[in-house]
Amino acid sequence: MGEADKRTEKKAARPGVGADVGIEETLDLDQAVIVALGCNDKGAWASCREALEAALARFRSEGVDVMARSVWWSSLAWPDPSDPPFLNGVVLVRTDHDPHALMATLGRIEDAFGRQRTVRNAPRTLDLDLIAYGRLSGDLDGLILPHPRAAERRFVMGPLAEIAPEWTHPTQAQTAKDLVASADVGRDAHPTT
Questions:
Q1: Which of 129, 153, 154, 178 is catalytic?
Q2: What is the mean pLDDT of residues 10-17?
């Protein structure tokens, strides 16, 4: 039996397995750790795309392995469309960090990329949000999971539906592909080429 046949047989034998991440196994979407990335201020980088790619390259050195990623999506800034437009994406990651340690890691990466926390929703060089950590839900000592507004945001649900359409929201019991259809924030969000 060839390697491809073994992988196909392994996938068929594992119930609840979701996104094919292009390696020797698939990712169990019930265990998926999902991070959203965004940028609308290129800062020291040539472009927001370059900044986001550099941020992803940094993940591994921080103990966060990217297992699957979306293409970059473009949208008007929200809530103020007169701000520079956003570039967003979503990644499924694997890490040994617990949710709080992962949030601290994401914050360190944002800081390294020049993130300034001034006024809410101001333009930012890098915005990293923990969308979901497996099926965890509720207030975990100040960390709310899943992200309380992610399901409303097309610029999050669109990229997520691209790589894991069958991922089911831990509290809303809807899939990413269903949530993208009903997301009302960032309705103009679309994949870039």
A1: 129
A2: 34
List of residues 6+ apart from 142 with CB closer than 8 A: none
Q: Quick check: is 127 catalytic? A: yes
22 vs 120, more confident: 120
Q: What is the reported pLDDT for 126?
A: 95
Q: How crowded is the C-beta side of 8, counted as CA atoms within 13 Å?
A: 5
Alpha helix (H) residue ranges in the chain: 3-13, 48-59, 99-112, 154-163, 176-182
**Per-position DSSP letters for 130-172, written without gaps between them:** EEEETT--EEETTEEES-TTGGGBHHHHHHHHHH-TT-B-TTT
pTM of the predicted protein model: 0.85
Work out the angle between the directed axes of helices 99-112 and 48-59 (0-180°, nearest 10): 140
Catalytic residue among 7, 49, 94, 115: 115
